[in-house]
């Protein structure tokens, strides 16, 4: 199928079925229609996100990714990112579709692949995020998946098959190594992901990087190298991003309790918290919370 024709149909399907929570009747499939967007921090999840209209810019550590109509982004680790759609309006909203990537589903396809169907996975961990142009075969599969939103009788049987096809297209595509690592229990990325999960679950606690390296089953030097490759941050910087994102969410509820929030997310010094918060978000905590209260668009958006 022609890519332009697929994108046109995809835009129509997303426009017709988009809802405020970004969910759909198909498991692990999200669609998003965004009329206005400001830079907002969030966790990326492990996801394939494809844009049908508009463009999005995402900052991960010191890296910036931008992708637009007909391009897709994959994330293989749940990462703290800041992103926004570019030049959106009610007349021309950003439209996108996402597929949550499950390690078990990736592993199953890797086991079923015939010898030689996939290139070997390198030893080093790839970046946890990558962008590529979507080939016609991938766009066609995504369109067929969203058509099932209008075909409830066929959805239960066909949706899992088309989801597998989409995953296979990505695994065998330009950014396949990023996704294949997700399904390998002993890959460098899976070891880094173990440390990422620990930091997310214990972000208020201090830690020694040596202990995280041991948890990940790596030497200290290998852990530093692979963690930086995947996340574009050091472990301490990663923890700081999680703390500040969580603080921003808490302050949306109570913008006046800056000291309480700073302690809740693990800061011993409220003044240090305020400095780092301002550096990250461009305004002191209370001011940023008030500003977001009047301008924040709560519509969920894809990574």
Automatic annotation (TrEMBL):
Keywords: DNA-binding, Transcription, Transcription regulation. InterPro entries: Homeodomain-like_sf, HTH_AraC, HTH_AraC-typ_CS, Tscrpt_reg_HTH_AraC_N. Signal peptide: none annotated. Pfam families: AraC_N (PF06719), HTH_18 (PF12833). Residues 193-291 form the HTH araC/xylS-type domain. GO terms for molecular function: DNA-binding transcription factor activity; sequence-specific DNA binding. The keyword Transcription regulation applies. SUPFAM superfamilies: Homeodomain-like. The keyword Hydrolase does not apply. Residues 261-303 are annotated as: Disordered. This is AraC family transcriptional regulator.
């Amino acid at each position: 199928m022609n890519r332009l024709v697929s994108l046109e149909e995809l835009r129509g399907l997303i426009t017709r079925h988009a809802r405020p929570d970004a969910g759909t009747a198909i498991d692990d499939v999200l669609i998003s229609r965004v009329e206005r967007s400001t830079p907002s921090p969030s966790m990326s999840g492990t996801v394939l996100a494809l844009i049908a209209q508009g463009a999005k810019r995402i900052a991960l550590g010191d890296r910036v990714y931008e992708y637009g109509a007909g391009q897709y982004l994959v994330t293989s680790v749940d990462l703290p990112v800041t992103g926004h759609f570019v030049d959106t309006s009610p007349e021309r909203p950003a439209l996108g579709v996402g597929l949550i990537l499950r390690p078990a589903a990736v592993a199953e396809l890797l086991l079923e692949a015939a010898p030689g169907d996939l290139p070997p996975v390198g030893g080093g961990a790839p970046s946890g995020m990558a962008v590529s142009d979507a080939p016609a075969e991938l766009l066609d599969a995504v369109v067929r998946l969203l058509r099932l939103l209008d075909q409830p009788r066929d959805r239960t049987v066909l949706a899992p098959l088309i989801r597998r096809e989409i995953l296979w297209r990505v695994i065998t595509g330009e950014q396949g190594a990023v996704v294949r690592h997700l399904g390998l229990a002993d890959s460098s990325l899976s070891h880094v992901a173990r440390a990422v999960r620990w930091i997310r679950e214990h972000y208020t606690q201090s830690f020694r990087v040596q202990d995280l390296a041991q948890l990940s089953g790596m030497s200290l030097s290998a852990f530093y190298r692979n963690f930086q490759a995947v996340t574009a941050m050091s472990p301490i910087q990663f923890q700081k991003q999680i703390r500040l994102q969580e603080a921003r969410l808490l302050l949306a509820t109570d913008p006046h309790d800056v000291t309480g929030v700073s302690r809740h997310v693990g800061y011993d010094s409220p003044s240090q918290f305020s400095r780092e918060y301002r550096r990250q978000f461009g305004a002191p905590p209370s001011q940023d919370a008030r500003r977001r209260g009047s301008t924040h668009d709560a519509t969920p958006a894809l990574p």
